[in-house]
Each structure stands twice: as C-alpha cells, then as structure tokens.
Design goal:
3-stranded antiparallel sheet, Ribosomal Protein S8, Chain: A, domain 1
Amino acid sequence: MNVVDDDLGGVVLSIKGDLVVIEDNDGFDREYHKSALVLVSASDQYGELDETARFMAGNEVRRDTLKKVKDVDSQLKKKFENRKAPDVDMEIDLHLHEIIDTEKGMSDADKIQYQISYFERMLEKAISDKKKKVVFIHGIGKGRLREEMRRVMNYYTNVRYFDADHGKYGSGATEVHIQHI
C-alpha cells in the first residue's frame, strides 16, 4: 500500500469505514482516508524479480498477515470475555463476520480455512489458560466447519466434545471439555 502525494509505503492493519490504518515501512501506524491510498501488488512493488525475491516478498505478506491476526485475536478476547454463560469458561463465536472485518476477496476455501485456523488458536489458548469448558458457536450451515473442528479435536487426547445445550445455542454450537493433568 502506498500513499498518494507522499513518499510513504506500508501495509494495511485495519479498515474502519473510510479510515485505513497502515503500518509504514518504519513500523509506525498511520491513519489515512482510503482515497489517499494506492494499492500496490507484490509484483508491482518488487518488479520482475528472481524466485528468491518473490519468496521474500511472500514472507513479508505472511508476517503482516500474522500481525493482523494477533491484533484481531486480542480484540476478540476482550469482546468475548464478558459474554460467557455462567457454567462455561469461554464462549467463542466462529461466524466469519465476528472474527474478521471483511470477507471481501476471500474464496469459500479461504473463509473456512480462516475459521479453522482461528478455532485452533482459540482451542490452544483455552488449553494453555487451563479452561475446562468452552463453547464454540459455529452455526448450522452445511456442517463443514463443525466437522472440520471435530476432526481437529480428535487429535487431542485431553479434549472431549459434544453438541452444546440445544436450548441455549440451537444446533449450531459444540461444547468442549478439556481435561488438565
């Protein structure tokens, strides 16, 4: 991302309406109106480069994406800490609109992968925070997210899962019990 009429480049950290926060090349967060920004693709930014340079450009994109995910994780943690049911240690809503600002440009495969990745991070966090009971709200849909979550949980020997309370969550949530040794 570059800025019009300014010798400044950077990557997008967040978008709130017409305001865009970018991290400039010096590591500072700066806020701009979206009309002041110019999208630059990796090939435009780095030109026709050899395979090593393209690999390095890809690493830069992955680093920036990871930073954005960590920022979103901390925001979501604050959001969900106060929403839990009395007998549940954590309640995590995996609906895409709850965990990402925009799904624009994402394929269906990207969306489900993002949700699964977020689910795995939240499950690992629940385990490291010694939570005993967590409810993951995945919705009904076609059941793909639910099945992928359960496939992941089958690898954990200290995790058991069940359909969550139908009266409270309907058919779209999974209750996870974590045994700590």
